[in-house]
Design a protein that fits this description.
The complex is a heterodimer of chains A (101) and B (486).
Chain A lengths: L4 H21 L3 H26 L3 H31 L13
Chain B lengths: L6 H17 L7 H22 L6 E3 L4 E3 L1 H24 L7 H19 L4 H19 L6 H32 L4 H10 L7 H18 L7 H8 L2 H26 L8 H19 L5 H21 L3 H32 L10 H4 L1 H15 L5 H16 L5 H28 L14 H19 L1 H11 L7
Antiparallel strand pairs in B: 1-2
Classes of the chains: A mainly alpha (101), B mainly alpha (486).
Chain lengths: 101, 486
Amino acid sequence: MNVGLEHYLTVSAMLFCLGLLGVILRRNVLVIYMSLELMLNAANLALVAFSRFNDNLTGQTMVFFIITVAAAEVAVGLALIVALYRKRQSAHVEDLTSLKL
Amino acid sequence: MNASLIVLELAVVCLGLILLAQDLYTPAKERRTLGYGAVLGVAVILLYSFFAFDGNETLYAFGNAYVLDGLALWFKRFFLLAALLVLIMAAEYSDRFEAGQSEFFALILFALAGMMFAASANDFTLLFVSLELITVTFYVLVSFLRRRVESLEAGVKYLILGALSSGFLVYGIALVFGVSGTLNFNELADKLTNHPALGHKSLLFTGLLLVFVGLGFKMAIVPFQIWAPDVYQGSPTPTTAFLSVGSKAAGVVLLMRLLGTAIPDLAFKLEKLLMTMAGLSILYGSLCAVPQRNLKRLLGYSSIASAGYLLLGFAVMNKSGSSAVLYYLAGYLFTALAAFSVIAIVVREAGAEDIDSLAGLAHRSPLLAATLTLAMVSLAGIPPLAGFFGKFLLLKAVVAEGIRWSAYYWLFAVAVAGVLVSLYYYFNVVRAIYWSKNVSDFKPISLSLPTKFALAICIVGMLWLGLYPGNALELAVEAVKSLKLV
């Protein structure tokens, strides 16, 4: 079988939807955060595939920027989640209720 | 390559780094002076921007990814002024942090650098990187009071929703790149003009919508507004102020570039969407603000309504709308920062963020009471203050489009209804200041000199924009000249 652009795009779209579902359905902040990273990587896969099949390297450079930014985001995000866990002893979104009307 | 164009951003980043280094040699008690040092530094950079560039010509750098034109310069000066006032507020506020005062100032400067890069973004790469620079710095700034669970919770909520919106943004960029083969705004516009068939591809349109989600999150427009009230309430007040002015304006400038430079031929397809979202944001913000008792939460909802008014200027898709957006933003800068400066001080004195903690403010400090009253009157859009003229220009642009399509009259009606509802809750605040029955505390509030200076700038700005709109409007019209709109 010849693997073409559409196959890569299908996988990427599936990854994106899985990530989105994870964000919506899961209740643990860490798992939600993992799903968010999955969404970013879905975009990376799409960019690389488009780059490869259109002979255009711009998309590949964009991926480098995305990976770098995602690393920074994870560093800050995990620190935040750990700080909240220490305070609350829980990483569940149902417990994030101190800010309400 | 024309790297000298980013001298302003470089100066801001260097200032932040110097601040971090200087922190090592400064005893803990004197860290506040570092904040005032940062204020001076930003003031110098702001002045320098007037000598270095005049914005009459459009200059490019880094393979056309970075553009310096009138619009970019207008926004850079806007962000510098906002950061200046926020830094004064932060220096005043810094004794409430147990540690990391200098980091707080430095992070504000790094976010400022991100906003200034956003003002010059002419490429999806720079759009993404500058937006993330702003967002990631704000994750830290929002949760800076890490002993307070509200602050941490606001930080995590902002983190999850911010990362979600950047996920949409990145996927949108990937789709746009896949269809058009370019990430540059100018090249994208050229391709759309030369190959009109490209504009009909649904994949491209989906991509643009996803990018719009990312920008809508920054601006806090319905339906991407859920984070705003919680984050506004939980963050330290200087962060809230910077979030409401700087972060929102960064979304505005990027949307303006996207619609005006990258997809001017496709922008009309977004017209209905923008109109709906503008109307919904105005209604949602105004109606939900009515029952609020927490001052910062109230302003959070009011900022959603403001985002709706700003979208009005985008929905009409012409230059008079865009210049009205700039004018409204300028007024919003002085108004919102005045309100938050006063709230930061009142909250410190009272220890609560309720509207009731404003009771007796008129006796305790007439200056604070007058400033907050002016800010509320300006936010409500009553002449002769800045907020009135901004809303007037936006509504004028909407009515002018009504001849083309009568739906704009409905949008106008919705906007006016929003203004009427907002009168109620803004005057609730004014009533608490002057006519509160149960005043327990008559102790006068003493203000430091820099705070008085910041309040004076805000008051002068509100009055000047309201009473002499001519000059400022000319500047705004000049700034939007480079956009490819009608």
